[in-house]
Specification:
Layout: H1 4-28, H2 41-55, H3 57-60, H4 70-97, H5 104-116, H6 118-135, H7 142-148, H8 150-167, H9 170-184, E1 187-188, E2 193-194, E3 199-200, E4 207-208, E5 213-214, E6 219-220, E7 225-227, E8 248-249, E9 254-255, E10 260-262, E11 266-267, E12 272-273, E13 278-279, E14 288-289, H10 291-300
Parallel strand pairs: 1-4, 2-5, 3-6, 4-7, 5-8, 6-9, 7-10, 8-11, 9-12, 10-13, 12-14
Length: about 300
């Protein structure tokens, strides 16, 4: 049986090999110094929980809240989350610039601007929650929708992450999106633009790409993908970043489970996309697209 000294020697060997890999990675990136710290996923997750409580204090906040103390409670949560976001955005700015210390003033400005947008975010979220309640016959109350539906949890995270993304804190925004993804199975890039009264029913497996544009009163079911059809590359094979490559979904569209919609195409207002449809071409307004109609179009071509 191996004794403690053998175990310690094994761990020492493992640590040494890991150090060698870190050094090699730094050399490949042409860095000799210690890389800047990334924003903390744990801190961002805690800040998101606090913000959700600030937005919906009676349902997602402390169970002991009173009417007299609620404003002080909300103000306290906004204060601590603003400080937390300033700290994590500062880390992001340092990391992005590749320096040991980022622009603290800019980080604080972004955090304050983000806090100032919270009332507008709450107003938009109210439309999402109401759309879910009205769109699901299984929903017994608006409160049930807020505390139980993964689609609502995902859109709360997205609305907040999208504002951070638009303010320039794109890494923090992406990390927040991945926090929601890991808990709901719904993957919404923070760059996606989503209108009011948005409802994701069930939700597992939904993917919404970075440059997607979604109008008002749109409903998606589980396993829907709004993705890219192709990825342009440079001469060396590196994928080119940015560029509009995801679908535009106009107002009042319903997309049923398993539909895959790819490329910068437009789904016209008032259309319905059936389950498991594979779609790579524009759809006129008020269309009804099923697997059968897609197959007929392919045959006609």
């Amino acid at each position: 049986m191996a004794d403690a000294s053998d175990a310690n020697q094994d761990i020492t060997t493992i640590v040494g090999r890991l150090r060698a890999l870190r050094v090699r990675a730094l050399e490949e990136r042409k860095r000799s110094d210690r890389p800047p710290r990334l924003p903390s996923r744990r801190a961002l997750s805690e800040a998101m929980d606090n913000l959700a409580a600030a937005l919906f204090p009676y349902r997602l906040g402390s169970p002991d809240l009173s009417d007299e103390g609620i404003d002080a409670y909300v103000g306290h949560l906004i204060d601590i989350t603003q400080r937390a976001f300033a700290r994590e955005i500062h880390r992001e700015l340092a990391f992005t610039a590749g320096v040991s210390d980022g622009d603290r003033t800019r980080a604080q400005q972004i955090a304050r601007s983000f806090s100032a947008r919270l009332p507008n975010i709450r107003e938009r979220l109210d439309t999402d929650i109401l759309a879910a309640y009205r769109g699901d016959p299984a929903a017994l109350s608006i409160d049930e929708v807020l505390v139980c539906y993964p689609g609502i949890r995902a859109i709360i995270h997205h609305r907040l992450a999208h504002e951070l993304h638009s303010l320039g804190a794109k890494l923090c925004a992406r990390m927040i999106a991945e926090i929601a993804h890991s808990t709901t199975g719904i993957d919404i890039h923070p760059g996606a633009t989503i209108g009011s009264s948005f409802f994701i029913d069930h939700g597992t497996g939904v993917v919404i790409g970075e440059t997607s544009v979604i109008g008002d009163r749109v409903r998606l079911y589980h396993a829907v993908t709004l993705g890219a059809k192709r990825f342009p590359a440079a001469e060396d094979g590196t994928l080119l970043k940015g560029g509009a490559r995801h679908p535009i979904v106009e107002d009042d569209v319903v997309i049923y489970a398993g539909a895959t919609i790819l490329g910068r195409i437009t789904i016209g207002r008032g259309s319905t996309i059936g389950g498991n449809v594979w779609l790579t071409e524009d759809v006129p307004p008020n269309s009804f697209v099923t697997q059968a109609t897609v197959r007929s179009n392919v045959t006609a071509l």
